[in-house]
Amino acid sequence: MTDQTTHLPTASPTSRHLLGIRGMSSRDLYLYLDTARTFREVLERPVRNLPTLRGVQVVNLFFENSTRTRISFELAEKRLGADVLNFAAGGSSVSKGETLLDTIRNIEAMKIDAVVMRHSAPGAPWFLADRIKSVVINAGDGAHEHPTQALLDLYTLREKFRVLEGLRVTLIGDIAHSRVAMSNLFALKIAGAIPAVCGPASMIPRDLDKLGIIVYHNVEEAIKNSDAINVLRIQLERAAGAAIPSLREYRIRYGINKRLLDKADHPMTILHPGPINRGVEIDHDVADGEHSLILDQVTNGVAVRMAILYLLCRGINRG
Does the active-site annotation cover 146? Predict the structure, then answer.
């Protein structure tokens, strides 16, 4: 199967890396989304492999635990025919005191073409991209950005609503400690949607309104003024629990349940980037309900990451 038979784009993103959504052009944003649509169609075929990256060496460099993102990237890489190396910091020389730069220089010396990186330090992918020759893709850096999640969320909304401009999307939950939140808000703004956030004041960054983001503290009001909500979990691993009195109180005030959604005057589309804390930020019957796109997000994540890898790595010639 060739690139021509699947009508893959010939255009390339402005940047050779994908480090974040902030500052991305509308042209690049829609290039990723349009390319993902092609790969989503490929995933529906009996033969789902499209070996456009055969011979390209990709390392998944995860300094934080991950299940969905790492597996999604690995599957996307293998669908494209790339050679994949998985690196877990817990069982590596990093645990013995090796620095990030030493680690990646050793990996690049093995002739790695692209690095998919998750790190707890905000800005780590930028640090990396400035110092190595490989393509760098940010799979989440601290509580800063998670660009591939934002793109797959946006792709999922576009498939449902067709048009993103003017779409009212509210992120509900722990905005301050979430890398998903800021990338999503930037992406929604670029696409012409109307982004909003809702949560306790202690979980909302200051001055978001100055970025043109609507801020709600009442969840019923937020739902009333939304076409879709993206529910975020409390980032307990980032000490977010200290920002609220208790999980029980959070659930009472901000948890998304069927009773709450039944009050809305229109069906509410539900997204969640995972992992889900069922019974805290979202109830079972909502997460598994007819208006939930959570499993669509998982499937779309593979297509979006295939698009990203294809667009950034297709020019690499390994001879």
Answer: yes
pTM of the model: 0.93
| Residue 2 annotated to the active site | no
pLDDT at 198: 97
Could you read off the pLDDT of 82-98 as tens digits, one per residue? 999 998 765 454 544 46
Question: Under CATH, what is the fold of the domain 4-144+301-313?
Answer: Rossmann fold (3.40.50)
Which of 16, 37, 68, 314 is catalytic? The answer is 68
Q: Is 65 helix (H, G, I), strand (E, B) or coil?
A: coil
Nearest-CA neighbor of 271 among 141, 159, 192?
159
Active-site position among 2, 10, 67, 96:
96
Query: For residue 124, which amino acid is it?
Result: A
119 is catalytic: no
Listed by start position, the domains of the chain span: 4-144+301-313, 147-298
**Which position among 40, 146, 177, 272 bears the catalytic label?**
146
Rounded Cα–Cα distance for residues 2 and 76 (Å): 17
Check 35, 69, 103, 170 and give the catalytic one: 69
Residue pair 271/157 in contact by the 8 Å Cβ criterion: yes
Other CB atoms within a 10 A radius of the CB of residue 246 amount to: 9
Q: Can you spell out the DSSP letters for 99-115?
A: -HHHHHHHHHTTT--EE
Topology of 147-298 in CATH? Rossmann fold (3.40.50)
From 70, 79, 118, 179, the catalytic residue: 118
Task: Read off the pLDDT of residues 216-242 as tens digits, 9 standing for 90 and up.
Answer: 999 999 999 999 999 999 875 555 555
Rounded Cα distance between 17 and 19, Å, is 6
